[in-house]
């Protein structure tokens, strides 16, 4: 039984789901609709990443299995980061009175 804390980003089941997504899903970013080059280094902004749709906290709250490939979509690393920042409740720039 996977726990909410360990599931979704690590472990053998997560790696297997990511491997299956890489094999079977089209190389199209689900955010911007552009093609993804799987040969890029994983730290490259345009690199391939597996993203949870809906987001991981939603899956965990619903009791769905985050390691199931049906909840994964390919995305550019950069698009995933931008989307993650948008979801964050913390403002990026704190306003300051002069
Ligand atoms: Zn993209």
List keywords for this structure.
alpha+beta; 98 residues; binds zinc ion; 2 strands
Could you describe the 3D structure shown?
- This protein is α+β, with helices and mostly antiparallel strands and 98 residues long.
- Helices cover 33% and strands 10% of the residues.
- It is built from three helices and two strands.
- The chain is globular, with a radius of gyration of 15 Å.
- Zinc ion binds next to strand 2.
Q: What Rg, in angstroms, do the CA atoms define?
A: 15 Å
Assign an overall shape. globular
Strand order of the largest sheet: 1-2
Structural class: alpha+beta
Instruction: Tell me the number of structural domains.
Output: 1
Overall average residue pLDDT: 86
Write the element-wise H/E pattern from the N-terminal end onward.
HEHEH
State the total count of DSSP E strands.
2
Strand content: 5-15%
The distinct ligands, each listed once, are: zinc ion
Number of helices, where a helix is a run of at least 4 consecutive DSSP H or I residues: 3
Ends apart, CA distance between termini: 54 Å
Largest sheet: 2 strands, antiparallel
Q: Are there runs of 5+ residues with pLDDT below 50, and where?
A: none
Kindly state the percentage of residues in helix: 25-40%
């Amino acid at each position: 039984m996977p726990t909410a804390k360990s599931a979704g980003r690590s472990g053998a089941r997560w790696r297997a789901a990511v491997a299956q997504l890489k094999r079977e899903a089209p190389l199209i970013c689900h955010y911007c609709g552009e093609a993804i080059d799987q040969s890029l280094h994983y730290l490259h902004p345009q690199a391939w990443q597996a993203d949870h749709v809906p987001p991981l906290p939603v899956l965990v709250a619903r009791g769905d299995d985050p390691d199931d490939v049906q909840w994964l979509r390919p995305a550019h690393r950069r698009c995933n980061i931008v989307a993650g920042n948008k979801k964050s409740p913390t403002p990026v720039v704190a306003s300051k009175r002069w």
